[in-house]
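re the bet — no i am not wrong, look at it urself. input seq straight from the record:
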Amino acid sequence: MAPLGVLLYVQDSHVTMDNGMLQVTLSKPEGIVTGIQYNGLDNLLEVLNDESNRGYWDLVWSAPGSTGTTGIFDVIKGTEFKIIVEDEEQVEISFTRTWYPSLEGKAVPLNIDKRFIMLRGSSGFYSYAIYEHLQDWPAFNLAETRIAFKLRKENFHYMAVADNRQRFMPLPEDRLPGRGQALAYPEAVLLVNPVEPEFEGEVDDKYQYSCENKDILVHGWISTDQQMGFWLITPSNEFRSGGPVKQNLTSHVGPTALAVS
């Protein structure tokens, strides 16, 4: 039987792409991924999180001459929704945010267009973004930009970063006070009373699972109960910054999966 065609359902505050095997729901017009339905599971994303903290694009920016490395963290929320392509073979949708001079100092000076694509017969979806900075707009520093997915902790316990870097992982609760002991910097936590005793005495640190850009091809999580995986696949390295041996984050305790530039 030929795969079903792709359908697009547009509601007041959400939009859903559906090809019969996968359904992806996004907030409208923000363009936050609020739900991914697959293999009988109503949502692969963490339903305990607010809808704005499940699947999203974000960036970190600062004004020229800023000191320190923190910058301003910005979850990118669109203000306008548009359909780019809609037929049985493909749906492509757009969520845009426009910069105006009145926003100087308050928002990164970029026009941003986040795109999401679903194809007939595919068990995944695509996402990319277009960042536009006009010549007469203010200069700024862009420390990083990324897409992040927060998966359901009850389903995804096994993480794979490479053929030789994969394992069962601690739970996010294991990093909290009482179960975890903060170390020299916030990302590093000593697991002193984890839910699963096998992790006692380990240090959890998301940077342990960083990879060189050239080696970030496929990474993600496996649900042994549901017999499926959630994978971030790198289509090319065009969007990467810092060269082939720069270290970037991949997946880490959450369960979280990232694509970072």
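see?? The mean pLDDT is 95. told u. also Residues 98 and 111 are 5 Å apart (CA to CA). so pay up
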